[in-house]
Amino acid sequence: MLEGKTVLITGASTGIGRAAAIGAAQHGADVAINYANSDGPAASCVAEIEALGQRAIAVKGDVADPQTAQDFVARAVDAFGKVDVMVSNAGICPFHAFLDMPVDVVERTFKVNLHGAYFMVQAAAQQMVKQGHGGSIVAVSSISALVGGEFQTHYTPTKAGVHSLMQSTAIALGRHGIRCNSVLPGTILTEINKDDLADIEKREYMEKRVPLGRLGAPDDLAGPIVFLASDMAAYVTGAALLVDGGMYVNLQ
Ligand SMILES: NC(=O)C1=CN([C@@H]2O[C@H](COP(=O)(O)OP(=O)(O)OC[C@H]3O[C@@H](n4cnc5c(N)ncnc54)[C@H](O)[C@@H]3O)[C@@H](O)[C@H]2O)C=CC1
Ligand SMILES: C[C@H](O)[C@@H]1OC(=O)[C@H](O)[C@@H]1O
């Protein structure tokens, strides 16, 4: 589904981003991954993609810094000649109560999750417009764009923001043939919620809320992201795809 395409993914050394990177390579893409700190997992992601017969590079950088986006796109163009797909995935969720939320935790969460997505999407779009043959942007938002979380008052607004960013960029970039969509994962077992879900009672409660009967795995996101990235979704833009095992619709 992505034969001959160059796919860029942020925060792709672990979790959903990594699963999407491997999924894109399985569908024929060359892949550039951005990662923050973890050199080992980034190198093993590159090795896994190369073992599939595709090309891969890993570029270290903090997405909260706007220059990281320019550098990431430039490095991908140097390596592969073009950018066809950007998956903006990097994110953090440091769970904390509202009333005593530290200012630096709020600011960092906004900067990584929302500013990071904004500048990555902008840098990719600038390159796609220059190339002149369209492209696809997929942002990893969340079910949390639609519902709240007591210990996520700094996080859920960033995910609503990412969802909204895709709606507005779908309009701004449609004339260039660039599609912009988001995926809204439910609760997926990754590093981001390892500590939170170590609480067995909470984990069992979350599991019971999912009609499909289990929490998600990173691979559950790979297919939806590859689909939105691919030409199979040629007339899909400004859309948001819930990937939550049915959790959102489960009122009672
Ligand atoms: N796991 C879940 O239940 C859900 C996750 N999401 C979103 O999925 C995305 C991926 O998270 P997961 O795979 O779950 O967790 P994860 O912790 O495995 O992945 C997050 C990735 O982002 C990277 N990252 C963090 N800060 C960064 C920075 N400043 N610059 C560059 N990279 C940075 C991390 O190193 C990590 O590789 C996040 O945006 C998260 O908000 C959305 C809904 C549910
Ligand atoms: C990190 C949380 O477990 C996860 O993040 C989200 O965006 C989901 O809504 C879950 O709360």
TrEMBL record:
Pfam families: adh_short_C2. It catalyses: L-rhamnofuranose + NAD(+) = L-rhamnono-1,4-lactone + NADH + H(+); L-rhamnofuranose + NADP(+) = L-rhamnono-1,4-lactone + NADPH + H(+). Keywords: NADP, Oxidoreductase, Rhamnose metabolism. This is L-rhamnose 1-dehydrogenase (NAD(P)(+)). Its EC number is 1.1.1.378. It is an enzyme of class 1 (oxidoreductase). One of its GO terms (molecular function) is quinone binding. Belongs to the short-chain dehydrogenases/reductases (SDR) family. Signal peptide: none annotated. The keyword Oxidoreductase applies. It comes from Sphingobium cupriresistens LL01. GO terms for biological process: fatty acid biosynthetic process; rhamnose catabolic process. It comes from the Bacteria. Pathway: Carbohydrate degradation; L-rhamnose degradation.
